[in-house]
């Protein structure tokens, strides 16, 4: 069993990061995630939003392998449960694989919270527990997987930054076009007055 | 982002747009009362999880029981209700 942990600070407020995290896919840094579905979503009695999602990932298996095992089996699936508390400002996300559970289990936990000293920043703490089963060299394989998780975690953070930039660009575009439509009626009114 | 069941992608997109707006503009600002996306969510769920016979009258592809068709092993995962703690994987 291997445990991997990491901590990262985003230079954005918690609301921005959480909104982006809910819309993380698709993004160019995680091209292997090809499908996301919401299986359940509700606000519980204490006001927290629970979401259960199913993610499907495609790992770019060579086509010759696909032709042997069939294209339906090249996707792997991950289930994800997230809880957002808008009062305490925490978002917790737990995910685990539901494919190949007889061979490997990868459990991940991510927590997003406002930075304790800098309110316009957000701290992400991440951990993954990896266990490879029933195979020799399992600790070596677990080490390899931890490296993959580490590099994916970096991509995941870049992905959030990408989503945040995209959302900000959309807001700016919307504001600019709203300003444009306001300017025209005023100019027309000024012309008519002359 | 596409749905796991390709036929449900459009329904999912409509729901996602509604949800993302509600999440940023209402929920995070403390106004979680009301469920403006409930209908859209139901239509999307009928496509992904349930038989097409129960889905509303709109053209759905034959493979629209997406999760059952693809044999995705979600049985046994607890989804309903405010569940505490994650699903336990044996390790």
Automatic annotation (TrEMBL), chain A:
Pfam families: PRELI
PROSITE patterns found in the cross-reference section: PRELI_MSF1
Top-rank taxon, per record: Eukaryota
Residue ranges of coiled coil: 157-184
InterPro entries: PRELI/MSF1_dom, Slowmo/Ups
Keyword hit for Coiled coil: yes
Domain PRELI/MSF1 residue range list: 1-172
GO cellular component, one term: mitochondrial intermembrane space
Annotated PANTHER family: MSF1/PX19 RELATED
Protein name: PRELI/MSF1 domain-containing protein
């Amino acid at each position: 069993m291997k445990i991997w942990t990491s901590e990262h600070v985003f230079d954005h407020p918690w609301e921005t990061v959480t909104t982006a995290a809910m819309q993380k896919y698709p993004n160019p840094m995680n091209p292997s995630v090809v499908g996301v579905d919401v299986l359940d979503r509700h606000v519980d009695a204490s006001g927290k939003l629970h979401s259960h999602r199913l993610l499907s990932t495609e790992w770019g298996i060579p086509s010759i392998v696909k032709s042997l095992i069939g294209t339906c089996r090249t996707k792997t699936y991950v289930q994800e449960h997230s809880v957002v508390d808008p009062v305490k400002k925490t978002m917790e996300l737990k995910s685990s694989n539901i494919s190949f559970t007889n061979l490997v289990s990868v459990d991940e936990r991510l927590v997003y919270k406002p930075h304790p000293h800098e309110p316009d920043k957000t701290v992400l703490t991440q951990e993954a527990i990896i266990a490879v089963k029933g195979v020799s060299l399992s600790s070596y394989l677990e080490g390899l997987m931890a490296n993959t998780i580490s590099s994916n975690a970096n991509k995941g953070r870049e992905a959030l930054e990408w989503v945040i930039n995209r959302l900000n660009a959309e807001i700016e575009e919307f504001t600019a076009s709203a300003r444009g439509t306001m300017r025209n009626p005023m100019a027309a009114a000024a012309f008519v007055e002359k | 982002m596409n749905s796991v069941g390709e036929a449900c992608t459009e329904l999912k997109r409509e729901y996602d747009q509604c949800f993302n707006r509600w999440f940023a503009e209402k929920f995070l600002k403390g106004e979680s009362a009301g469920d403006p996306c409930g209908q859209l969510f139901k239509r999307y769920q009928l496509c992904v999880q349930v038989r097409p016979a129960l889905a509303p009258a709109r053209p759905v592809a034959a493979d629209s029981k997406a999760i059952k068709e693809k044999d995705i092993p979600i049985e046994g995962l607890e989804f309903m209700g405010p569940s505490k703690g994650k699903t336990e994987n044996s390790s």
